[in-house]
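Exercise 3.2. Students should predict the tertiary structure of the chain below and write it as structure tokens, then compare their answer with the key that follows.

Predict this chain's 3D structure.
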Amino acid sequence: MAVPKRKTSRMRRNMRRSHHALKPAGVVVDKETGNIRRPHHVDLESGTYRGRQVLDVKDDE
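Answer key:
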């Protein structure tokens, strides 16, 4: 079994972990409705995707 020859320093350990931070989720503003949504996902308020109606949206009246 492989065993490290030397102890990993705090600096080297932390540099390795620098990419582990969580990044904020990417969002885009819909061109037609102005709603904020995730890229490549259906706009849930209007039910459209790439200019086409793909979901039936219920009115909350």
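Discussion points: Residues 24-61 form one domain. The first strand starts at residue 28 and ends at 29.
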